[in-house]
Structures are given as C-alpha cells and as structure tokens.
Amino acid sequence: MLELKNMHRLLCTALATALLVGCASKEPQGPQITLQDPEQTPREKWSDAMKILRDDLGIKGQKDVPLETARQYGLIAGVPKPARGNGGSMGDLAFGGVGAALFLIPTGQVMGPFQHDQATAWVPVGKAGNMAEAIQIAMDVWNRARARAFTDPTTLYVKPSVLPDNSPDQYAGLKEAFFKRPTPPSGGPVDGPSFTPKGKYYGPIFLSGFHTQLTVDVSESDIERNKAVKLLSAQLPDWFVIYNSGQPKAGKGITPFPPSILVAGKEYDFVGK
Predict the structure, then answer these.
(1) How far is CA 137 from CA 45, 123, 125, 205, 217, in A?
(2) For 251-269, how does the pLDDT look when each residue is reduced to its tens digit (9 = 90+)?
(3) pTM for the model
(4) Domain ranges, ordered by start, for the chain
(5) Which of 5, 150, 207, 238 makes a 20 to 30 Å CA pair with 217?
(6) What is the superkingdom listed in this entry's lineage (predicted)?
C-alpha cells in the first residue's frame, strides 16, 4: 500500500512537470496531459463552471480537465458517469488537492481576466429602479457579506466596472487607469445569467479590485484564501458569482487549489462532461 501511495505521488509530480514545463525541455516528461480547450470542444462537454465563466462573465482563457483524465488520475470521486444538466452537478465532484490545482495552472499566456479572481453581480429589477441604484445595492450587499465572512475586513473598497479586471478596455484612458477608475456599467435591465431564476436584472456589475481586497481580507483575518472565498460566497445571494482563479503550488506553506466558480456557496469545478 505504501508503495502504491509513493507511485501515485510520483505520478502527480510527473503530471505537474509535464504541464508546467511543457515544451521548455526536450527530455521526456512522463504523462502528457491535454486540457480540454473550449474553442475546440463541443459545448455539451463543457463543465458548468466553463459555461458560467464564458457565457455569463464573458471571460475566456480557462480550460477544463477532461472527465476521463480526472477519473484516471483520481482527481474526482463518486462520479460513476459524466455529470449532466445545469443543476449544479459539478458540486458533487471532489478534487484531489495538489494534482488538480497543478492541472489547471495556465502557463505561457499573457495575464488576462481568467488569471484574476473576479466577483460579479446581477441585481434583480425588483430591488433597483435603475443601474445607479443597482450598483449601490450590489456594493452594500457585498460589504455586509464581507463583514459576516471575515473577522477583520479591510477598508479597501471595490469599484463598479463594466468589464472584469485585467480586461484591455476596462479603463477609458490612461488617466482613469492610473487612478484605477474603471468604466462603470450603464444601461437598462437585461436577461439574467444562467445561474439565476429567469427574469430581468441590472448587470453584469463587475467588482474591480476584488482580487486585491480579498488578499488583504485573507491576511487581516488570518484565513486560507480558498476557504475565505467559500465563506464569502456563502454570505452572498444567488445573483452574485465569484470566479476563484486558483492557487498554483508556490513553495512551502502555500496550499494549492484549483480554479472554480461559486454561487451562493455552491462550487462548480472545471471538469468537463
């Protein structure tokens, strides 16, 4: 049994090396893992997390772990057949910690929205009469949720943005970029995202600066980042969504974890169907 555990550990290391080193070395790197590129994969094989990220948040760049690959290397448990439907089936998947986190680290790519934690709100029309009111409601709900989730939330605040952080056109000009003043959302009600009840909403309202705010909240409240995101999501209504960009293995004391989507405490993993 001990020998099998050691073999599994070595295999995970080989998988990580294959992904992180990629073409940097001409030497054989062990198992070659191919992530599931949504651009070349039928939509019905996308994870629920991928659909929310691309369709609702408009963020590209992330990839899924193919379901069979995840099964083969023990990264999921208790899934006898591919999960289907839009009812949060990915919440039943259990990632295998380090291995899964290393699978999903994007490498050799320009920093983009998918490599940054993102938080977004769609405010129901029954709660706001226009976009300005919706933005204020989203900010108030957000700060109350942080006050419940963290023992010592930072005074750093997020700002409303029409685009996710790290988007090329997030700022109207150099002056706005220097002072971190993203272009705010505008316009009337729109159809809601896939994870909310059908109806009209004001959104999307991206919360610019969430990644930095979360970093300080985690430090001040002495809590692990992955746990902090889950606690925060559990305090938010179902018209908020958080994209957790994950944490690669980065030395001792750093616990790696895979990217995921969270809605009202429910977590969706990037494992294809």
Answers:
(1) 36, 8, 11, 11, 21
(2) 676 777 889 999 999 999 9
(3) 0.78
(4) 2-103, 117-244
(5) 238
(6) Bacteria
